[in-house]
Write a structure and sequence with these properties.
By secondary structure, the chain is mainly α. Helices cover 68% and strands 1% of the residues.
Length: 305
């Protein structure tokens, strides 16, 4: 018996090879789990810094000095950050750990919101609130890895991320001198250009997330932008002054923002439905119909983008 008909049928049954662009797009929207690792590492760093300093993260966690038992509370928060970071890496404890870390960030967002109420026109208070709120949303996205991706949870994370990005963009324009001061002086095209360009990028990204326009790719690009900002601004600041608490805190918070963006992107990617490839099938067949082997079995050509 000749095996050539069987070989030919198997050849026809092979999925159509996707172009490089489609492969890159698939890689961007896939859930690699990097967000959970980066987010957990940042929580661990914040916890260790809190224990070393015996205080809250300077410049980012504005707990009032008059708070009763403030020092004890700072140590407790540091321990919770460490336990939460470890718990996020284990499937059995991930939901609980995500809730703990998320509540910590949410509490710090409320501390910033007190300043918003006291001075509604102070964009710095809005920026601090948005940063901590985004980190709380990141905890929700990481905790959601314990089960099937919920479209409702994904939608909440996407809309919240978008709203925070709008605040980030407005902060660039409304506090332009401060933004320019943080931009490296050696940057081509000048500090003002990059201060305005990155502010516009935040605004566009926020609108893209709210409108669900390529949301997963948007989160990947934002994670990249956060990482570049850390490498060009916070890391050099730490190298210039290793004893600066603000530099250590800035690097840890920036790492947490990278992790949150990646984790939200992972969640959005998992929540996307499977899409049947519309690539042309061999012999001009309908790809949804697939091909048939000599035994009469139909083989579907399906891809999850």
């Amino acid at each position: 018996m000749s095996i050539r008909p069987i070989e030919a049928a198997c050849e026809r049954a092979r999925p159509v090879r996707r172009p490089a662009g489609a492969a890159l797009c698939s890689a961007l929207v896939s859930d690699h789990g990097w967000g959970m690792g980066v987010y957990g590492a940042a929580a661990l760093a914040l916890g260790l810094l809190g224990l070393i300093w015996g205080d809250f993260t300077v410049g980012f966690h504005p707990v009032p000095e008059a708070t009763p038992g403030r020092a004890l509370l700072a140590h407790a928060c540091a321990v919770l950050f460490i336990l939460g970071a470890l718990g996020l890496q284990q499937g059995r404890t991930r939901t609980l750990a995500g809730g703990v870390v998320g509540l910590l960030y949410l509490a710090f967002a409320l501390c910033w919101s007190r300043r918003v109420v006291a001075a509604p026109l102070m964009i710095g208070a809005w920026l601090g609130t948005a940063e901590q709120l985004l980190l709380a949303v990141g905890a929700l996205a990481v905790a959601a890895r314990t089960g099937p991706a919920s479209r409702t949870t994904a939608r909440v994370c996407r809309l919240a991320f978008g709203a925070c990005e709008i605040v980030f963009g407005l902060a660039h324009f409304l506090s332009l001198p401060e933004t320019i001061a943080m931009t490296p002086a050696w940057a081509p095209l000048g500090q003002t250009f990059w201060a305005l360009a990155t502010g516009a990028a935040h605004l566009v990204a926020g609108l893209a997330l709210i409108m669900a326009f390529f949301p997963v790719v948007t989160t990947r690009l934002l994670a990249t932008m956060f990482a570049v900002f850390g490498a060009l601004v916070w890391l050099p600041a730490l190298l210039d002054d290793p004893g600066s608490r603000l530099a250590w805190a800035g690097n840890a918070i920036n790492l947490a923002l990278v992790g949150a963006a990646l984790a939200i992107g992972d969640l959005l990617g998992r929540a996307r439905p499977a899409i049947v490839s519309q690539a042309a099938a061999p012999n001009d067949q309908d790809p949804s119909a697939g091909v048939r082997t000599p035994q009469g079995r139909a083989i579907k050509l399906r891809y999850k983008m």
